[in-house]
Amino acid sequence: MRNLSRPEIRTSLGVLAITCVCAGVFLGLGQTGGSVTHARPGSDLGGPGDCPIPPCTRYIGPEGREFCECPTPTPTPSAWKGVGHASGQDAHVPIIEGKLRSSWWYNWGYKNSRQRYLSNPCYVAMVSCIGSKYVENLEAHAAVEPRNRTWLVFNEPDHSGQCDTSAVGAASGYDSIYDQIKAGSNGKAQILVGGTVYLVTTIKGENWWTEFLDIVQRPIEGIHIHAYPGEGPDGSFQNPHCEPFYQLGGSPAEALTCLIPQLEQTYQFFQNQPKTVGKPIWITETSLLGRGHFTPEDMRDNFMIPLLDWFVTAKNGQYSLFQGLAWFSDNSTNAGPNAYPDSNLLNLDDSLTPLGLEWKEW
Fold this sequence. Notes:
The protein is of the alpha/beta class and 362 residues long. It has an 8-stranded parallel β-sheet with strand order 5-4-11-10-9-8-7-6, with helices on one face. A 3-stranded antiparallel β-sheet has the order 1-2-3, with no helix packed on it. The chain starts with 17 loop residues before the first strand and ends with a helix. The N terminus is likely disordered.
């Protein structure tokens, strides 16, 4: 189901309020039908690119700069669309926001070279792990306007090659990270925690989340998870339910048939937990990471399109708390340029791949 219409919502908070377009990173609120006008924000509103997102209220901030504030944001139907910006190329940001018509994106960080994005209202910041390497001047960074952005906490804490943090350590770290983000943002930021690569349909995934939720003290405002059907080509993680789809010559269609029931079971798991019931769930990474095992056309027709069909139907139906989905990735350089040619949204020359051309239509 391709959804090409986007609502236009106007908010007026007084005679001096001016509506503007800024990021719909607060998902999970009401939706309205209609069409949206794409605006190109100036540098004072967050950088280049067309950002197809709901309007908010413009106000004058420190040093006379103008910012967008969304005290009661209402997302468009396509506000769920996100992209993992893995290429690290600044030139891809306006493509993600413009040609790919994505409402939000992230790059696994918030500080150092990444902090230049913090004023971009389409940017979703991430604290990828615990410890001083990852948590540095967090309160000050969270104070950068727009302070009501969404923050993601943790990137694959259950993966030995990524954050690799026990549930106990993650719970303690989250409590501290939560306090710092809330203090810096004056309570405006929305925080989603998780980033786990093992779904709760696996023993490892269920054990990690159960222990984390038993220990964590701060509120859970939302959850984010990764959704990969099978074993990574490098053997770095496994989903035993779908393991054959890389090792035994399986297809994208078979992988998706395996994945969707697991996502539905994962959804139900969080509805059965007192700390997460009713909370929004974002899928912040998904694809097959085939590394050339499949063609882009096969990935598009037999994985991406039916996955997005399912997602849009689910979020508008009985799985309404699924409210964000990010594709991995624009063009990942994690394993070298064009490492995942069958799942990238962008070619090396920045043109859209068959998957990118499909993605922009949703």
